[in-house]
Amino acid sequence: MLVRLRRNGANVNAYSRRALLGIVTNELNRGLADGEMVIKLAPEWAKGYWLVGAAHGAKGEFDKSFAAYSEAIRVDPQ
After folding, report:
1. pTM for the whole thing?
2. Which residue from 52, 21, 23 is spatially nearest to 36, judged by alpha carbons?
3. What letter would DSSP give residue 59?
4. What is the DSSP string of 42-56?
5. 18 phi and psi, to 5 degrees?
6. What is the dihedral of CA 2, 70, 73, 23, to 10 degrees?
7. How confident is the model at residue 47 (pLDDT cuts 50, 70, 90)?
8. HSE value, Cβ hemisphere, 13 Å, CA-based, for 51
9. Which of 31, 53, 64, 78 has its Cβ near the most Cβ atoms within 10 Å?
10. β partners of residue 7
């Protein structure tokens, strides 16, 4: 769907990739912060919510993870 987005001069795709890298390398606070930046810059893009959900889940914060995944589904139900 949305491959590359630019908002206020920031490359949202770069933040999303760095968020995923933070999650898979267990730098969960970095991944969470970058995922939240994706949401801030592109709130219509479900991937940001997915990244935040993944980071919270990896941290064991399952209520927050569920809320983020629910928001991703609301933003993009398909």
Report:
1. 0.87
2. 52
3. T
4. -TT-HHHHHHHHHHH
5. -70, -35
6. 30
7. very high
8. 33
9. 31
10. 10
**Strand bridging mode 10-11 / 6-7:** antiparallel
Mean pLDDT, all residues of the chain:
90
CB of 69 within 8 A of CB of 49? yes
Lookup: tokens for 56 = 């919270």
**Does 22 have pLDDT greater than 60?**
yes
Contact of 34 with 25, CB cutoff 8 Å: no
Predicted confidence band of residue 21 (pLDDT cuts 50, 70, 90): very high
Measured CA to CA in angstroms, residue 46 lies from 18, 36 at distances of 16, 12
